[in-house]
Amino acid sequence: MIKHSNYGKSRVRLVKVEREGDRHHFREVTVHIQFTGDYDECYIRGDNSRILPTDTMKNTVYALARTAPLGAIEDFGKRLCLHFLDNNPHLHSVRVELEQAHWSRLGKHSFQRGTEVRTASVVDGKSFNSGLKDLILLNTTDSSFEGYVRDPYTTLKEARDRIMGTSVEASWLYAGTNQDFDTLWQAIRSRLVEVFAGHVSPSVQSTLYAMGEAVLADFPCVEEISLSLPNKHCLLVNLEPFGLDNPNEVFLPVDEPHGLIEATLSREHS
Amino acid sequence: MIKHSNYGKSRVRLVKVEREGDRHHFREVTVHIQFTGDYDECYIRGDNSRILPTDTMKNTVYALARTAPLGAIEDFGKRLCLHFLDNNPHLHSVRVELEQAHWSRLGKHSFQRGTEVRTASVVDGKSFNSGLKDLILLNTTDSSFEGYVRDPYTTLKEARDRIMGTSVEASWLYAGTNQDFDTLWQAIRSRLVEVFAGHVSPSVQSTLYAMGEAVLADFPCVEEISLSLPNKHCLLVNLEPFGLDNPNEVFLPVDEPHGLIEATLSREHS
Amino acid sequence: MIKHSNYGKSRVRLVKVEREGDRHHFREVTVHIQFTGDYDECYIRGDNSRILPTDTMKNTVYALARTAPLGAIEDFGKRLCLHFLDNNPHLHSVRVELEQAHWSRLGKHSFQRGTEVRTASVVDGKSFNSGLKDLILLNTTDSSFEGYVRDPYTTLKEARDRIMGTSVEASWLYAGTNQDFDTLWQAIRSRLVEVFAGHVSPSVQSTLYAMGEAVLADFPCVEEISLSLPNKHCLLVNLEPFGLDNPNEVFLPVDEPHGLIEATLSREHS
Amino acid sequence: MIKHSNYGKSRVRLVKVEREGDRHHFREVTVHIQFTGDYDECYIRGDNSRILPTDTMKNTVYALARTAPLGAIEDFGKRLCLHFLDNNPHLHSVRVELEQAHWSRLGKHSFQRGTEVRTASVVDGKSFNSGLKDLILLNTTDSSFEGYVRDPYTTLKEARDRIMGTSVEASWLYAGTNQDFDTLWQAIRSRLVEVFAGHVSPSVQSTLYAMGEAVLADFPCVEEISLSLPNKHCLLVNLEPFGLDNPNEVFLPVDEPHGLIEATLSREHS
Question: Is C147 helix (H, G, I), strand (E, B) or coil?
Fold first, then answer.
């Protein structure tokens, strides 16, 4: 029996240019759509009569992008959800995930792309997660790691002063459905960066908690926040064989293996 | 409050050579370890006294690889789970994910690597999922897609005979914990490929179902199977502007956007 | 002044299905086209009147794929070259580079893709380089590295018996223009693999030379061969801190840094 | 016979932290080293006695990073070249390529990484190319493409107003060897961006030329500049099937295929 199924279209890439006179706004968004519903017959009997082709989902993205201002990606995700729910009787739930590339303005109609990605996940037009990924941050000091468990396989030396680098992935759930998503996203992103940069860290776990707590404390509209922080290690290079010391100056950055620290923090309800 | 947390080490890469006389066995495995447990104090108070460093997790992979034959990746994952559970009183649950690269034998001590990846996920040494990914398959015929829902945004033409290509990702849960994992993996992989190649397909959904059903039917030890099949579209090129027909010969393969069809099939229990 | 310029289309992806009754042939090729010629005015004055749009180059790939059997990628590259040279008076030289994905047959119309890529570079339909890349090979023994230069920065230990792994990239120039490219490619590829697997290697340099020499010795139609062999290191893990030995069994494979050994061998002419 | 050979170490990753009181400077550089010289015996006879191991090259990067301030990557590349030339009698020429990741300052010891990469290539400590890559720029207007060659395979419509996006790769050769590389790099990078953003473009070729010419005109120390501009197409989506117009608002960005426009501009010497 089919315990669960979903189908949809991934990596639908959209660019929209919106113009205020000669000042242009440029947005690049990638959309992923997943349908869940009463589709077992399609799988079991090869009956396509309930299937909205994923090609049509793709077309819908472009059509709906044209018929109204795009708005925040959360708002656009909501419009897509409601459209699909209204028009597909066998659809029970639709998840729309969106990724917006970071383009910074260079002039009235010129832009440069960065690494950072703004994300959103909208379910049924009613549940809104916003977030970010590929926000690559690093502190050269104020990070230590000491006092941990030692066992026969421990070789790590305690570090009083180490580099802490990470690629932040965050996603937060809003309490309500009617937010000024653009303004909030900027404010929450800034808060995350500010806490990371200012934290005196005894562990990645502690920094993660400080970041999440700050968002919950400062943004009552955030119900819950998940953070995923890979520990992008910078290993101190041993220069002793060459008769040199290394007073925390020369490091080898490695991508693998990496620590991975993840947690979801939620507001306590009394 | 912390609703959930986990921490661990990702992308621990291991090669092990095992020798039967001058016939060598070569295995390349990447290991991901995630701990869940009583670690809230580490996050909240920066108290590291319960934390086993992720560096030690990495060392443990290499040490345990040495002290016994590696066995199937599922068996190695089990050994890692049991080791960590035995030695970390604050650890409630440990998940070990493993990926084995596909190396085919060229000679007694020579090997060539392929794309396909064998995967496993072992939880607490008691729950075993095995699987594969990056198994890229394609049929040039016996695939159609017709009779689907049409709406104002539909432009897709019905296809009586199309190419169907996909990159299979599969994961199945074993009923018991004591299997001959290597033999089963080979047999299940072969069955998946065989069904894909032989299926006359009215939709990706139908092919996915046939693949999953065949595994459940033929392997009583499989409790449940999840399949994820991206529809790697090959678009028929329109050659009419050049005065040419295109009788299903010339195609444009595209990576994005792609359909994504996923389902979990489980055994019905009466 | 413009010292050099070229323009063209990259990553034109083509699939062609050719049928012998119910036995299908499936080919996936990516084409890169670069024009060099009398185009300075386009750059300097923005005069487009000599420019064949790169979009038209792309269309030409699909049209020419339809109007004749594809043949070997070298033959298809030649047809493209001649077409462009015949129709573009300002074109002095055209380079067509082609990459063919490796699909192995599973049945009459079913295929599986591997990693290996067959390559070709055709200039003006007269000069033919064939080659391959992403051929990932490894020997678990018969490789050593000893007797090298030692200086104050040397820490590497001599290895009597090490793993040697690489991702072969090779390209060879044919003497003539009218070859059975498919048959030759298979034979040369096999020879490269055979020499790699059988060589008792004092260095990657030596193995590279043996591979190249074997091709020049056995294939008189090959004028010159270039090989690029990254040394994909497998580092012996130090298990002493854990009270364990490591008799060449447990390794850490790393992607970076890697040695890179390259050479071009040519036939000596008296 | 060996027509050409080179060997060396690629992807040597280095981080260096330099401190002015509590203000930290953070640099991440990847180094590639290639030796050319009198090494034929190593290939032909497996004689390693002239080979400096690539592992030692790697160690040298870390040691030399410690023994002096890093300086501009061009300066560091020069130090590496001179070290290797001084100590390896069989070395004829050494090429050091360096890539510096872009980290922007967030605070006294906090940084964020961007996409852009600064590059340099230093040969024998005497020839200096500087450059950049992954500088992703886009104009939403002031770009057209008209008046080009039409042939039977042309389907492209002339565009009066199109989006022009690219990922700039540039490399320029300095006339002298003793430059203030950091200051010049910033100034040349800014000039390239400024010209791109301000150019009214009839073709990518024309924009490329304007960028290169501006650098040659404003920086007498630049002898020659090479630019590679992929045309990252944004395709206007056809919304007519849905009864909608599309006044240059909704686009599909594609990575493949892409136009690729390249040229080297050099100073004319009388």
Answer: coil
Q: Name the amino acid, one letter, at B174.
A: Y
User: In what helix (H) or strand (E) does residue B87 lie, and over which residues does it extend?
Assistant: helix B73-87
C120 is written with which tokens? 């070709």
φ, ψ of residue C175 to 5 degrees: the values are -70, -45
Give the mean pLDDT of chain B. Answer: 96
Does residue A264 have an active-site annotation?
Answer: no
A108-163: per-residue pLDDT in tens?
Answer: 999 999 999 999 999 999 999 999 999 999 999 999 999 999 999 999 999 999 99
Q: How far apart are CA D215 and CA D182, in angstroms?
A: 16
- Does B235 touch chain C if contact means CB atoms closer than 8 Å? no
Task: State whether B113 and C115 contact (CB < 8 Å).
Answer: yes
Say whether C263 and D155 touch across the interface (CB within 8 A): no
Say whether A15 and D197 touch across the interface (CB within 8 A).
no
Q: Which of C201, C191, C194, C190 is nearest to C141 (CA)?
A: C201
Of B119, B36, B126, which is closest to residue B78 (Cα–Cα)? B126
Q: What is the pLDDT of residues B145-180, one digit of tens each?
A: 999 999 999 999 999 999 999 999 999 999 988 889
How does DSSP classify residue D263?
A: E
Which amino acid is residue B222, in one-letter code? V
Would an 8 Å CB–CB cutoff place C237 in contact with chain B?
A: yes
Please, what is the Cα angle at C158 between C152 and C162, to 5 degrees?
140
Q: Does B266 touch chain A (CB under 8 A)?
A: yes
pLDDT per residue as tens digits for the range D179-189: 999 999 999 99
| Minimum-distance CB partner of A3 among B4, B224, B259 | B224
Nearest alpha carbon to residue D125 among D83, D90, D62, D69: D83
Q: For residues B108 and C139, what is the distance between their CA atoms, to the nearest angstrom?
A: 9
Nearest to B257 by CA among D116, A57, A22, C168: A57
Task: Take residue A30 and report the two structure tokens written for it.
Answer: 């990638």
Residues in chain A, overall count: 270
| Cβ–Cβ gap B13/C253 under 8 Å | yes
Question: What gap in Å lies between CA D46 and CA C203, rounded to an integer?
Answer: 7
pTM: 0.95
Q: How far is C16 from chain A (nearest CA, A)?
A: 23
CA dihedral (D137, D140, D142, D144) positive or negative: positive
3-state SS, residue B135: strand
Q: Is C54 a catalytic residue?
A: yes
Q: Calculate the alpha carbon distances from C226 to B83, C32, C223, D3, D59 in Å.
A: 49, 20, 11, 9, 29
Per residue in A10-59, pLDDT tens?
999 999 999 999 999 999 999 999 999 999 999 999 999 999 999 999 99
Q: Which residues of chain B have a CB within 8 Å of the CB of D241?
A: 155
Phi, psi of A246 (to 5 degrees): -145, 85
| Enzyme catalytic residues of B | 9, 54, 233
The whole-number pLDDT of residue C178 equals 84
pLDDT of residue D99: 98
- Catalytic, A24? Answer no
Residue of A51, A149, A154, A162 to mutate, interface with B, max B Cβ within 10 Å: A149
- What is the C-alpha to C-alpha distance for residues A166 and B197, in angstroms, rounded to an integer? 44
Q: What is the mean pLDDT of chain D?
A: 96
Strands (E), chain A: 2-20, 23-37, 91-105, 110-123, 127-139, 164-174, 222-231, 234-236, 250-253, 258-266
Report the residue count for chain B. Answer: 270
B44, B208, B268: residue with CB nearest A43: B208
Which of A9, A58, A199, A232 is an active site residue? Answer: A9
- Is A13 an 8 Å CB contact of chain D? yes
DSSP readout, C215-259?
A: HHHH-TTEEEEEEEEEE--EEEP--GGGT---SS-EEEE--SSEE
User: D 79-118 residues with CB below 8 A of B?
Assistant: none
